[in-house]
Each structure stands twice: as C-alpha cells, then as structure tokens.
Amino acid sequence: MGRRRRSAIGTVIRMFILALVIAVAWQVYEDWHDSRTGDIVQMTTIRYSYEQMENDINKLRRAYPKLISVEVPATSPDGRGLYLLHVGNMQADNHVLIQASMHAREYVNTQICMKQIEMLCRNAGTAGRHGWTGAALLDKVCFHIFPMNNPDGVAICQQGPDAVRNSSLRAILDDCCQREAGGDPDYWKKWKANARGVDLNSNFDARWDTFTSGSSLPSSQKYKGEAPASEPEVQVLLKTAEKYRVCFVLSYHTAGGLIYWNYASGSALETEKELCSLLSSLTGYYADTISTPCGCSNYFGEVKNIPSLTIEMVAGRGGEDYPLGDEVLAPAWEAAAGILPELAFYFSNLPEK
Ligand SMILES: [Zn+2]
Fold first, then answer.
1. Count of other CB atoms within 10 angstroms of residue 230
2. Are 323 and 115 in contact (CB under 8 A)?
3. How far is the CA of 327 from the centre of ligand 1 (A)?
4. How far is ligand 1, taken at its centre, from the CA of residue 167, in Å?
5. In a 3-state reduction of DSSP, which class is residue 15?
C-alpha cells in the first residue's frame, strides 16, 4: 500500500515536471518563431487591449534583451502600470520621448507603436535607407516610449465602465454617462479621458488657465482637471522627459493624417520644422499648425522649448469617427513604418553612408 502510494506520487511528480518542461520549451519556441517572422504584435484586428500589450511587451523583452528594457515608473488611477519601454542605448547622447493613446479611443496607436518597436528591433541587423544598421543607430539614440499612456481610458473605451475596479472612479464615470449621454451604452466607445474624467491632453501646464472652452466637470473629453499636471499619466511624462533630458517629443493621436508643429521657438523651432517636413514626406501626411492650449506638445514646445510634434494617424477619417475599424490598420502602418528608423538616423548625427 505504502509503496504503491509512493510510486503514484512519483508518477504525478514526473508528469508535472514533464508538463513544465514542455511548457517552457513551447514558450521558447514561440518566442523564437514570433521574433523570426516579425509576428509578435498582431496587425489584423484593431481591438488591442492593455493585456495584449503587456503580453507583447514581455515577448519583445525576451526576443530583444540587448535593445529593449522595460520599466513601470507609475500607475494609473485604477492601478494599471504605465509601461515605459527604453529602446536603444540608455547612455546615448540623444533621447526621444514618444507617447501613444493619451486619448483613450485612439488606441490604434498603441498597436502601431508596439509594431514600430518590434520592427525596429527585428531589422536592427540590416542596413536601412541611410546605409546604417538599426543597431548602429540605436547605439547613438535612445527612444523612451509609453505605448499606452492612458490604459484606464483604453479599458473603458473597449469594455465599458465595468473595466474600472475602483468604485469611486466608477461613480465618476456613471455620472459622466448620465449627464452627457443619458446613460447611452455606446457613450464609452468615444471615451477620450482617463478614469477620473480628465482629458490628459488638456492637463498640461501650458496656458492652462486660458483654456475655458472645455467641460467644467469630469467628462469623456475636454475637462482639463483641477490643476495643471494633476494626473499621474501626465506627471510620468514630465518626469521621464526631465530624467533623460529628451531632445524631441512625439505624440501619437488620431485621426486625419496630419502633423501639427510650431510649438517651440528659436533653433528648437527650426528642428521641429525640419522634423515635421521629414515625417510629412515619409508618411504622406500634411503639416499643419494649431493653437489650442494645455496639450502635451504645447507644454514641451512652448514651455520647455523642446521640439515637439503631434501626429494624427489614420488619414481620411474625421475627429468623431469612432470606433475605428480593422481596415484602417494597414494604411496606418504603411504610413508609420518608417518613422522610428528615420528618427533614429536623424538623432544619431551620423553622416549618410
Ligand atoms: Zn487625440
């Protein structure tokens, strides 16, 4: 009896170890396969969630450990980690800050941003259009990327208010929906703000006092918050820019297929103009200027005098055309594919080869 029992336990342990070995081997194979085929970040359906992004970040980190490091320097009001990916040499002379999905319903840019990171790393061994390999450029430049600056907002937009775990935040959201849409369940699909109902791109300390045309209460959009930079999603961008002394800030939004510039002044404005025309010819998007206050690019350009651009991805779509469909993915990716390699070359200060 005792021996039979011991042998049964031994069999269970052996089976468990075998299952563990198979699971690890499968994970290693999957990582290897995905990194070889460039298939880590899927580009077939547009509904890209926070959890998918987390999963892909882990895969990217395992596939490209020399090029990518990951940290979570802050959390959102509902407790989601604000992921920051460092791509390139952390000791480089030039540092670039990039954020996507500050506006929740524009989450297609998280997917595009993640794909940009994947392809930059995957092609690091081959020479690009300026003759240098990605690896050589990434030795001179470091990108600091928040692929999903507003994860609570994205969860609200994709799953509704039940995605928010904190009950006092849910009460704010329910109030917004009742007040602004009479409880319409489709209201969430156009949600732009964070879980506190603050429009993050109206929360920056750049002529914040002068912005009086927005909502005076928490809202799906255009509520600037109780004070400039009151929101953790904004604070983490300010801290990151400061910490790495970034020389350029790029903000991804949708929609329209255009690039806003004219934020900085003096020689920083010249750089901004040059970068805008570079990215404009690369993407096919037209250049434009905008004067609304308290946005991310306003702050870094006007207040900090760091060259800054806002790129509105997805050409041919209007401002209220949400949710976007799968058909926008391929053309948006086509426009976006060359952006990081081009910026890496520009900020490497290397000559044309
Ligand atoms: Zn936006």
1. 14
2. no
3. 19
4. 27
5. helix
Q: Which of 228, 275, 267, 270 is nearest to 249 (CA)?
A: 275
- The terminus-to-terminus CA distance of the chain in angstroms comes to 77
List all residues 6 or more positions away from 195 whose beta carbon is below 8 Å from its beta carbon: 76, 77, 78, 152, 153, 156, 164, 166, 169, 172, 173
State the Cα–Cα distance between residues 106 and 163, nearest whole angstrom: 17
Residue 11: the pLDDT is: 85
Distance 133 CA to ligand 1 centre (A): 33
Topology given in CATH for the domain delimited by 38-154+229-348? Aminopeptidase (3.40.630)
Tens digits of per-residue pLDDT, 255-277? 999 999 999 999 999 999 999 99
Which of 104, 221, 114, 200 is closest to 152 using CA atoms?
104
Q: Which residues contact 120 (CB under 8 A, 6 or more apart)?
A: 67, 87, 134, 138, 340, 341, 344
* Cα 164 from Cα 202, distance rounded (Å): 22
Q: How far is the CA of 339 from the centre of ligand 1 (A)?
A: 19
Name the average pLDDT for the chain. 94
Q: Please report, as a single letter, which amino acid is at residue 192.
A: K
What is the Cβ-side half-sphere exposure of residue 53, based on CA atoms within 13 angstroms? 32
Distance 252 CA to ligand 1 centre (A): 7
CB 189 within 8 A of CB 325: no
> Which residue from 249, 252, 257 is spatially nearest to 297, judged by alpha carbons?
249
pLDDT means over runs of 10, the chain (353 residues): 74 84 75 70 94 97 96 98 98 98 97 97 94 97 98 98 98 98 96 98 97 96 98 98 98 96 98 98 96 95 98 86 90 96 97 91
CA of 310 to the centre of ligand 1 (A): 9
- Rounded to the nearest angstrom, the distance between the alpha carbon of 300 and the centre of ligand 1 is 16
